Amino acid sequence: MTAQATYEFKAEIKQLLDILVHSLYTEREIFLRELVSNASDALDKLRIVTASQGGEGAESDDEAPLEIRIEADKDKKLLTISDNGIGMTEAELVENIGTIAHSGSSSFLKALKESGGPNGQNADGIIGRFGVGFYSVYMVAQSVKITTRSYRPDAMPVEWISDGQGSYTIRELTPGNGADESAAIPRGTRIEISLKDEFVAEFTELDDLRMVIRKHSNFIGFPILVSGERANTVPALWREPKFQITKEQYKEFYSFLTYDHEEPMDTLHLSVDAPVQFNALCFIPKKTKDFMGFDREDWGLDLYVRRVLIQRQNKDLIPQHLMFVRGVVDTEDLPLNISRETLQDNLLIRKINTTLAKQVLSHLEKMAEDKDKYAEFWREHSRVFKAGYMDFANREAFAGLLRFNSSSCETADELVSFDEYISRAKLDQKKIYFAFGPSREALKLNPHLEIFRKKGVEVLYLFEPIDEFVMDALRKHKDFDLTPAELAKPEDLASLPDVDADSTDTETQAAPEKPALDALFERFKAILGDGVTEVRASARLTGSPCCLVNPDGHTTSSMDKIMRHMSHDTSVPKKVMELNPKHELIRNLASLNQADPADPFVEQAAKQLFESALLLEGYLTDPHALVGRVQDLLAKSSGWYTKAK
Ligand code: ADP
Q: Mind listing the domains of the chain with CATH numbers?
């Protein structure tokens, strides 16, 4: 066909155009995003065909750089977008622009129908949610002229014109039908928009145009030149092959993304094909943001669809306990014009989330091979990371990445993994022991840990309340039960040989006779009343006279405190008091009590020991009585001491 022909738009498109033209939709600038994306797709397609055909069959002006050009002419009220991409033949033009082939427009119409038609109350909202491809240009255009020439060597240029009112004309620019025109028309597509008067000012200012481009299309992989000046500044690094990217480029992109001028701690560049296709470029920053503080909402990954930004900081793309990861995800599997509502409960996004979570974890596993580097990560990000104890799907990997300080560490900075712990475990030890405390120093003095020191059994130290939840949720690692040291059964440890010949060890001392001991326990119980549930001999103490033990045998005192704190319960829980019969003080008290069952010193000592134990456990709210007693004892002992000197 050489002559000019006029076609009617398909009914659906007429309807769509009518709505676009008459809608009051405010974000009209998105038409630029749609046209630029089309141009970018056309350039991509050209790159693919020329690569697959080894350049053969394509027009031979390969020298010209692939780019998108935007020109504006205020006086002529013209805005032009051109690309030197794949172009269209006449048949393709009729096929592509004139029938609804793409997902955006048809889902748009469907949504519109469901909302009660174009005059329905929600029409504007619906237009806002959907991009509608090429046709969105009619929100601002009086008329549009497309001039296009396919990459095929024998293709003739074609011209398409429409005012969007219901029909379009099309003609081939063949010799004899404008020969000189045809010779001058290069490969690619040029879209000339005659702007409606009211939009001339808005869409012919070059700086404004550049801003719109940067806002929606900054990462388009080809240069977008607005009147010759490049508007998109940062390349979509995530879509580039890894080996081509320098460290500098990564860093530059990272600072663009995060405004962090330091280098990232680590970079993850992924290209995934199954179960979903996506590219991701993610970073772990060197410094954490204080997520427990103010900036709880400041996280998420930027979602792109084919280099076009769809949503910043999407929080469905990555689990919350990996919120320290910053970056972008780009998928081809979503339509460009997907609405935010649709994103929220999107299966594809969920699949990206699970895939990314696994990838980040295995990346951290690799990072952990370098102990120092992982320690740096742990210091900054562990607080956030630990919340992953709820991620049951990745439990193993999560547990493998946990680190603790422990009784085997020389310093507070040293870190131990479960696996290291297991590698050092004693023969037949089937438990990983842990204890919660405010500091290493406090834990070193914790009476519950005495037997562990004596038997050389390592205890992991927990310093943050969340650690308790982690242990509680995991319960096991490999074959090892995670067991709080204070709830350990002394008989589990008794058979192990001693390693620590501590000078304070009371083991070599003889315990008092049973009747004397039982009498002392009874006396203690009588003195302490309801404060304790039971007083009994301890098998776990080797240096201290006493400790308190939870009667239920499965709640640690620290967890108990957290629960009480949460329920605003300020009462003091009732505990079992365990006494060390071989300790000098207990032996002396037993004989004093035997000699005089009403000896006031035994009473003072019982109260003092109990309150000191409460103090250690963090339950003593009123220290007055304790302090008074200590001062009284000191006064008396200073008297004896002075005499003895
Ligand atoms: P979508 O891009 O969602 O498919 P559009 O209405 O924007 O829908 O475009 C319809 C089709 O027209 C595209 O799929 C493409 O085949 C073709 N097309 C649009 N713009 C160009 C262009 N600049 N160069 C080549 N083909 C294009």
A: 5-230 (3.30.565.10), 237-371 (3.30.230.80), 402-494 (3.40.50.11260), 517-537+573-644 (1.20.120.790)
